[in-house]
Amino acid sequence: MRKFRRFLRSRLFSCALLSLLCLAGCALLIVWLPRFLAPVALLERAFSLAAALYVASRRTVPEKKLPCLILLLLPWAGALFVFLFGIREEAEVPVTKLREEEGLFGAASCLAEQVCGMKATTARAVRYFSVGREMYESLLSDLKAAERRIWLEYYILAEGKFWDDVLAVLLEKAKIVDVRILCDGFGSALTLPHNFQTILKKYGIAVKIYRPPRFQRGFSRRDHKKLAIIDDVVYTGGVNLADEYIGEKLRFGHWKDTAVRIEGASAFCALFLQTWGTKNSYTPENAGTIPCLPLADMGKRRLFRRLFPLLFLRAERQILLFTPYLSLDGPTMSALKAAASAGVDVRLMIPHRPDKRAVFFLTRAYARELTRAGVQVREYTAGFLHAKSCVIDGEYALVSSCNLDFRSFYEQEECGALVRDEALARAMMADFQACWEQGTGLKRVGRMLDLAGRVCMLFAPLT
Fold first, then answer.
1. pLDDT tens by residue, 64-91
2. Greatest CA span in the chain, whole angstroms?
3. Cβ distance 433 to 270 under 8 Å?
4. Quick check: 230 and 150 in contact, CB under 8 A?
5. How many helices (H) and strands (E) does the chain have?
6. What is the rounded distance in angstroms from the CA atom of residue 387 to the CA atom of residue 379?
């Protein structure tokens, strides 16, 4: 009931109400106007033609354009949808050819520097967390020991034990260190008090909301990062600051997520400051011996959708993948299929229990498509799988906030780290193997459901 009242008071409610009124108006136009007013029907065709030209002119992959063009078959509503919630353009970033002799990490570093300006650095130590509870305990310990800065950037901050324990430390530390909080305006819209920004500022904590909900174009552009910077210690991965991630609240059974702690990687400060809107004044320092590459999308500069195909095509022996959502664009799908066809052991784990049924149906449809090319797929049965991590050739470890889907590739701001460290890779491989052995095979479906899945794949770029 409290969440419902909060929803009624939030900007999200006004946005939802305006959207419903817009849809109702479109429905009336669809039913009545073309039936009685031929000139209006002609105007509608001109409107749709303008929308089609708009879609065709956008700089993005064909998969993003196709569903929008299909929607234009709907009178008025399709064109209105395209103009209001349509295609987000990408920046034209020329990438020079990556030489084979650079190796996987070198090629990824070259790509990251060209696309988003991030340079590889070295870390003193790295630690993998196979569940959110482990990260929670380590994070609190580091927060209490902070001496210079605490910068938090999360998609979801939610009232509960996790956030309350973190906040208690922040209120104390704000007296002596630089404390800043960035959270997404949609992800945290219903999980925090509407005046929490004002409250925290009274205690000396700087707070910024990324794109607060309002009726506007590009509403789906969200800050999906999970990033904590405490002095020169960094946490990143899939864990938000909410109770389900540490097992305090059971939404879909055990919540399986992963994160990584990186010690001595000041280069991550640039990722936070980019979103905060402050000029970066931090120069990457080589603090240790473990090669580490900070990763992030920056506005229209989309890194992850380019990075995954590069990693998959350069794998030589094995690819192990966790992802909660699966809807792949052409390059990523082709790269996974090519790796499997070349004899690489490609294994993918997806949830068995859905949190969003429509998206889950789409995930299984894409998974079935991959199995036809030799990719092994299993479903996580112990609860809900929310991890977004990858191990390649037992040497390269990628932990991030990025799902293998269109939304993460083209809409949301994501972050993560690629680390070249066999010890970290072994820990992640052991975790993956334990989940793999307890998982179940992909469920077979009849021809009609398989056909329905293929049809839904046409509209995957809109999800």
1. 777 877 777 777 777 777 777 667 767 7
2. 74
3. no
4. yes
5. 17, 18
6. 13
Structure tokens at 305: 């959708």
Distance from C-alpha of 71 to C-alpha of 414, rounded to nearest angstrom? 28
The structural architecture, per CATH, of the domain 104-462 is 2-Layer Sandwich (3.30)
Alpha carbon 127 to its chain centroid, in Å, reads 22
CA distance 388 to 253: 18
Query: What is the arithmetic mean of pLDDT over 1-19?
Result: 71
**Dihedral sign computed on CA atoms, order 269, 275, 278, 283:** positive
Q: How many of the other CB atoms lie within 10 Å of CB of 4?
A: 9
Cα 200 to Cα 103, 172, 195, 252, distances in angstroms: 46, 12, 9, 32
Could you count the other beta carbons within 10 Å of the beta carbon of residue 114? 17
What tokens does 357 get? 């049924």
With contact defined as beta carbons under 8 Å apart, do 418 and 397 qualify?
A: yes
The mean pLDDT value for 140-148 works out to: 96
If you count them, how many residues does the chain have? 463
Which residues are 235's β-sheet partners? 228, 261
For the chain, give every domain's residue range: 2-85, 104-462
pTM for the predicted model, two decimal places: 0.86
Residue 258 CA to residue 160 CA, distance in Å, equals 20
Q: What percent of the chain has pLDDT over 90?
A: 55
Residue 390 pLDDT grade (very low, low, confident, very high; cuts 50, 70, 90) = very high
How high is the pLDDT of residue 105? 94
Give the C-alpha distances (Å, rounded to integers) separating 233 from 31, 149, 189, 218: 59, 10, 28, 33
For residue 30, name the pLDDT band (cuts at 50, 70, 90): low
